[in-house]
Amino acid sequence: MKALYVIPARGGSKGIPHKNLNPLGGKPLVRYSIDLARELADDADICLSTDDADIIRVAEEAGLKVPFVRPAELAGDHSGTYEVLLHALDHYQKAGRTYDTLVLLQPTSPFRQVCDVRACIEKYEAGDYQMVVSVREAESNPYYNCYEADGEGLLHLSKGDGSYVRRQDAPKAYAYNGAVYVMRVGDLLRMSYARFTRIGFVEMDAYHSLDLDTPLDWLLAETLLTQNNGQL
Description:
Layout: E1 3-8, E2 23-24, E3 27-28, H1 29-38, E4 46-49, H2 53-61, H3 81-94, E5 101-104, H4 114-126, E6 131-137, E7 147-149, E8 155-157, E9 174-184, H5 185-190, E10 199-203, H6 215-227
Parallel strand pairs: 1-4, 1-5, 6-10
Antiparallel strand pairs: 2-3, 5-9, 6-9, 7-8
């Protein structure tokens, strides 16, 4: 397996301003993903994709060379991660470096561990998957407490006939936690990973699945780090 590790870290962020540069436990958020990636791959196979000069400075102060500056059209609020990944792959292909696997590590998952990434890679290598992702048990279960509105604005259980009276009896439901995506490059070049159908998964616990999207998430992360003396 020849893998490219991509860390997408644009400068803008609405939920938490300057999120990727904000110090979490005294370290810029993006550094958590950089440090983790370096435990898994050589620097030459790590791609920090950013449009922001300060994020580039933080990476290069850590000794990681940033291969390019992400174009502005791929750094807006409505820019998609899929296009960012294609841009990174195209850059390396033009430089004569090809990969059969892409590992996406989003900076918003600082509690993700090396063992989580390795578990996804091992599952990916052992099966015929287009992608293996990390998940956590979903907070809402479509068989138990997840509802949809019909044409009249009335709520109906999303799945099943409502026969499950205890959550633990309902089929287990999962949610992507955003921490790890291991993807087959050949399929990624043909379609967005949102259209993949052969998807394997590795479950992570709630603690290591924490995704920083809102100020409340950030406060929780800081609190957890304080309680654990800065240890993830």
